[in-house]
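Batch 3, record 17
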Amino acid sequence: MKNPKFGYARPTTLDEALDLLASSEDAKLLAGGQSLLPVLALRLGSPDLVVDIGRVPGLDEITLAADGSVAIGALVRHAEVEDSHTVAGYAPLVAAAMPWIGHRAIRNQGTTVGSIAHGDPAAEMPAVCLSTSAVMTAVSARGERSIPAADFFDGFLTTALEPDEILTKVTFPPWRTGDRGAVVEQARRHGDYALVGLSARVHVTDGVIDEAVLAFLSVASTPVRVAAAEESLIGSAPSTDAYALAAEVVSNNLTPGADVHATANYRKHLAGVLTKRALEQALMSEVAA
Amino acid sequence: MSPQNEQGVRVVIGGTIDIECTINGEPVAVETEVRRSLSDVIRHEVGLTGTHLGCEHGVCGACTVLIDGKAVRSCLMLAAQADGADITTIEGLADGDEYHPVQQAMHDAMAFQCAFCSPGFILTTVALLDRKPDATGDEIKQELSGNLCRCTGYQSILDGAAKAVELMSETANPPGQPTADQASGERSDV
Amino acid sequence: MTDQRTQTSGLGFVGQSVKRVEDARLLRGQGTFVADVIPSNCLHAAFLRSPFPHARIASINAAVARKLDGVVAVVTGAELEQMTNPFLPFTQQAGLYTPLYYGLSAERVRMVGDPVAIVVAASRHIAEDALELIEVDYEELGPVASISQALNPSSAQLWDKANHNLLYDHTDQFGDVDAVFASADHVFTETFSCPRQSNQPMETRGTLVEVDPVTGDVTVRSATQSSHALRWMLAAYTERTSGLRSLKQFLTNSDRRSGFLAGAKAVFAEKGEALQESDNAGMIDQIKSDKSTVPNLMRTLAGVAGKERYVKVVADDIGGGFGAKGSVAREDVAVAAVAMALGRSVTWIEDRVENLMDGGQAREEDLTMTVAVDADGTLRGLKVDLIIDQGAYPATPVGAALTARIMQVMQPGSYRFEAFEQRSRIVATTKGKYVAYRGPWANETWARERMLNVVARNLGMSQTEIRRKNMYGDEDWPDPANLPTMLTGPTLDVTMSVRKTLDRAIELADLGTFDAAKADAESRGKWFGVGFASYHEAAPGPPNYFDSINPGTGALVDQPGRVTVGVDGKIRVFTSQMPHGQSHETTYAQIAADQLRVGIEDIELVFGDTSRTPFELLGTGGSRGGPVGGGVVRKVSRRLRQELIDSAADLLEANPDDITIEAGNVHVAGVPAKGVSFADIAAHHMKAKGTAIVDRDAVFDVDDNYNGAGDGGWSVATHVCWVEIDKDTGFVEIPRYLVVEDCGPVINPAIVDGQVRGGVAQGIGAVLYEKVAYDERGTHQSTTYLDYLVPTSMEIPTIEIEHLETLSDGENDFRGVGEGGMIGAPAAITNAIEDALDVTITEQHLPPSRILELAGVVEPD
Ligand SMILES: Cc1cc2nc3c(=O)[nH]c(=O)nc-3n(C[C@H](O)[C@H](O)[C@H](O)COP(=O)(O)OP(=O)(O)OC[C@H]3O[C@@H](n4cnc5c(N)ncnc54)[C@H](O)[C@@H]3O)c2cc1C
Ligand code: FES
Ligand code: FES
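Prediction for the assembled complex:
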């Protein structure tokens, strides 16, 4: 299980990186390598050129803007996000996702933005992006553009990024007063990719839910929201009944696949169970109050 | 990552790359194929075979090394990515005949059997205790769950890591003598 | 750990958790696993493997691959057939057909991962590059992906000379089965299925064949559980000489003759009587099925005879095996043959994907259990219909055939049945090879202990009641001169103390607490259950155990051992055991040091190197390391002590009876100041014996054999598992797990506990996490560690262990403990889950989705 042959480049500026990416039909960007390198080792892919952006300056920061939004740069490792007070305070759903991602040694090397760019439907961050309406900043030699999370995840391991684009940062909008959230999942073993998971964000005003986003992982070829379940929550007060109804709608609306780890029916059922748990966890303080 | 080689690199397919880094405190320079993983280079080109390969796809943790003090999978890193890095492998822990406290604690706990997994567990524990010197049993169990062991059922390894917490807090403010390596034959106080 | 030892050895180290000698190198990363000792100029091998479960190879073209820079050789299956002999039937049993096969497949592939070509190149990277350049034209044939497909007459047939896909079909009866079944109050039947599991040692397989460019000497370094078996089989399979030429060489070349005889004597000459007794019917059946067995067998024997120099096998540190490294691999033969042909060193280090495809799979069995029982719960009769899915290629030397026999012998377990019948079948399927896996027969325990619970539920008894009522106990062997036997043959004695472990387990489990625990779990949305399971295992078994499996084998399993003292006083213990995690260097040092009254550090254990260790084919396996491996160390060390004392008496001009040894100082009792060292005695002995002693490292040299004879005995345990199952997710938690075991005197409690825990962890893995998955098309779906789930520290609970130490009156009381954890655990866990769900469970693998299906919460897809 050894890597195939490839060319390697390690640019030291963003422009150089963009040029390199554009220079080859079959160039692959290498960030933390925790998804790309297993693919290469198993010889499931064999790019002509690997562009290691590890030394490109300016991509390794977590920045808090005046409006309370948090931007995570392309080279920030999961572990840095996990340990960041800024993220814990201003992007709590991102922080909540971190412990679910593999193990610490994977998080020490893998990047948070890389896991978004990779677009794995079993990964946590794409669902978190959906549930928080994160905004992607993509840069190419042609310029910079912003892509809302809702338009970003196109299919299994495919995103709206063009082959010559680098995702330089992902911005998580301000966490408002009244925002509540939870990331909940169930994996066969601790640290495994989830059988099913979800990132839930609900907004409560005066004891009534007026916004709800339920973004699921591992149930389709992309992270998906279940609009009907979200709608079922709007206008109700946080309550066991409301959660149960949402859970039922979730189970009825999702069409997950089967694999060696679980059947499709089980995943549907589990999605409902986890919906309830996520809502309970997110709204615990509301119910207690 | 701190003191790294900031130079850019452009290598054609099948080419080689010069890497300079520090391994266990010693400067190391190798020329290697760009496709080689850090683990292959450490094992075969540097000759430090204590870093083991159990899966080569990131799951078992046997290949764990410390880069700038942090535990990473050396099988999931190109050697080229580690250019300029400060690397610690299992061979770099003991001080001469004296075990590192984590090794000592694992020895005392009779943590391992075949010990093929041991470099990964020991280095992961070292990194954890560096970050959380007073890690609790639950934290230890969580952190070490990224490493697979097929022989022990883990209890003895978790006991060893818990012992290491004690041992290192003692060494941090030593009440008595440092622990000497009595590699064999001593009876534990069972 | 609760350590309630009732007895400890009076001598010192045995019985103590002496810290591991092995750690000094292993914890520092200074072990020498096979992948660590590859010379820099060594060539690297990689195998081209079939992507199809079953296909004909229409053509194979390696021309482009051969031209790739760095490639030294590409050898295809057809080419390898010209260089080697086929794997031959090692186990002969009436009714068994063993297909012959080579290191690589030439005409047909029979599993995903079947090797069809070997590439040897300057690096593994280049070798893998070359694999992509080899073109193979496959014509797909039908898959045989399950036991039911194998038995379906319309399925494809894997082996032309077999009876469709049925390789073995044999029935034995013990007692008057019909009468017992006719007279019993009830008969219950259930079929239990265990899916495929894999041993998965953390170190994969690997072999380095070093060829000395000057002398041509071959040294094979390998991760093997038996270096002698590997050496013999490589010698046999890697030289394809014509029988006549070989015979001529044998007759005319004295080197060859003596080389052959030296080895052959060890196997055959001394055991001739035993072999004559053995079951010739097996060989006759084999030859009837496949006449080419005869010339191939002759060629193989001639190959051994014709070997000018036997290969030497050296095994150092090994990263676990659990049975998977007990087999001689097809890859080993291919690598060795190519290295010898090239005259260059070649290595193959298996990667994890290869390992998951064909590094060893196990356990896939269906067992239909029919029990005759009286209304009061008295077990009367047992009928078992066993079918083993052995995959495509039979493992050599120990595979499904031997396992079927062991399962039969152990099947009635610790219970007093009056009659027993077993039909055993082995089928061929398009899957990875079935190997021995820690307690290879474990499914007899699983199915029986499951069935007992089914019977108990039907009769309204508790799981502990039915066991206690029917279990053998001390009242069954009042007269040591007249011991009872299991229905299947092996003798039972005081060491079969399984009921003591059950009683102690019942005490510790505190049955009275279950109701409250159940109510508490219910209040948290969980189902609660407790499962018991008991077993006895032959570790090493009574003297007639091996003969009960296959007549004649008993005499083949003598464990040799040797101890020497050099002129420098250095003590070396030699064993044919092949440590791979069991801490032999520590435990054997404990045993020898106690006998010789020296320190642990004074003992060096020599293992793994066939040029230094005594000949024996089993190596490490079968929980034999402690009882017979340790037993022979004790035997030779004790004899050595007497020789040392006698010689010291001569030196000190004293009466041997007055001599004692204390911490390596040999002296007349009461006058330690005038003592002498082992080196002094060795020097004296050397002088006294004159030229009779040629080896300065072995001035004293004691060797002997031991097979547990007279006092072998059983290792026993009861496992109790508590489960709580989340009603919403089906996730199983194990809040408590208890093992009460009795392996006689414990040599090293921490090491024994480690063995037990490791075994239980594998049992937990089997039930809740691990499954080698093939779909109905034969596609292999678990070829990475993302799909084959080895449990982590988060999945394994704390395991409580209680030791009982029943002593027999024999000379040596150590009994084995390596396998037991894995034998008891699957039964205890599945029994607990059944108790919690209150439905009958017939399968062993119970992932959360299956649990909720069984509970009726989720429909199957
Ligand atoms: C054993 C194991 C367990 C894991 N478990 C989980 C888990 O439970 N949950 C989870 O979410 N992840 C898991 N991961 C994956 C891990 O989170 C990765 O770090 C992450 O998916 C990818 O980040 P990376 O920096 O390593 O990306 P790389 O591997 O370097 O790149 C991945 C892909 O994204 C592209 N890419 C990366 N960065 C950018 C960018 N800035 N712009 C454009 N394209 C880019 C690359 O070209 C490549 O195609 C696991 C990995 C392993 C090995
Ligand atoms: S070898 Fe790197 S994680 Fe297994
Ligand atoms: S001790 Fe053998 S794998 Fe951990």
